[in-house]
Amino acid sequence: MNRRTFYLTFIYAVWALIGFVLGIPAAIYLLWPPRPKKEAGWIEAGSLAQVKLRTPDEFVFRRNRVDGWKVTSEKSTAWVVKMAENQVVAFSPQCPHLGCAYHWVAKQNEFLCPCHASTFSIEGEVLTGPAPRALDRFEVKMEGDKLLLGPVRQSREAGS
Ligand code: FES
C-alpha cells in the first residue's frame, strides 16, 4: 500500500464513521414511530378532606403530557366543588369563552372571568357575559378522601 492509497482509505474510513454516527439518530427518527399524543389517565389532584360543602376550592396539581418522544410535566389547576358528601364536581380552569383563568368571588357567590366579565354559578352554568356555554368539567373519581381527575369534558353550547 502506497501513501496515496493509505490516505484515501483513511479518509473514506473517517467519512464512513461520520456517516454511521449521524445515521443512527436519523434511522431511529425515521423507523421508530413516535408515541401518540396523549394525556395520562387518572391524576391524583389532592385531598377532599379540607373541602367545605358548596365552597369552591382551587386544586393545584402536576400532570404529565406525552407528545411524540417528549414527556412534559406541567402545573395544572381545577376548581373543585363538593356539592354533597359524595358528589364532587371539578371544573376546568379556563373560561369557555376565550380561555382566560376565572376565579371564585365568595361575596357574589359566583365564578367571575376578568377578561370579558362572564359569570358562572357554583354549578358552572353561565349567568352573564359572552361565554357560550357552561364551564367544562373534568371526569372525577373519589378514592376515600383522594380526588382523581380524568379528561376534561366540554359542556354543551347554550341553546344546542
Ligand atoms: S375569556 Fe372569559 S369571558 Fe371572555
Strand content: 35-45%
Query: Helix proportion of residues, in percent?
Result: 10-25%
Shape: elongated
Q: What would CATH call the class of the largest domain?
A: Mainly Beta
Q: If you consult CATH, what is the topology of the largest domain?
A: Rieske Iron-sulfur Protein
Structural class: alpha+beta
Query: What would CATH call the architecture of the largest domain?
Result: 3-layer Sandwich
Looking at this structure, what is the CATH superfamily of the largest domain? Rieske [2Fe-2S] iron-sulphur domain
Order of helices and strands: HEEEEEEEEEEE
Radius of gyration: 26 Å
Number of separate structural domains: 2
Number of strands: 11
Number of helices: 1
In this structure, how is the largest beta sheet organized?
4 strands, antiparallel
Order of strands in the sheet with most strands: 1-3-4-5
> Which residues form runs of ≥5 with pLDDT under 50?
none
Through-space gap between termini: 84 Å
Which distinct ligands sit in these coordinates?
A: FE2/S2 (inorganic) cluster
Offer a concise description of the structure:
This protein has 160 residues and is α+β, with helices and mostly antiparallel strands. The protein contains one helix and eleven strands; from the N terminus they run αβββββββββββ.
Overview of this protein structure:
This protein is of the alpha+beta class. It has one helix and eleven strands. The chain folds into two domains: 30 residues; 118 residues, Rieske Iron-sulfur Protein (3-layer Sandwich). 18% of the residues lie in helices and 42% in strands. A four-stranded antiparallel β-sheet has the order 1-3-4-5, with no helix packed on it. Strands 6-7-8-9 form a four-stranded antiparallel β-sheet, with no helix packed on it. Strand 7 and strand 8 form a beta hairpin. It is elongated. The termini are far apart. The relative contact order is 0.14.
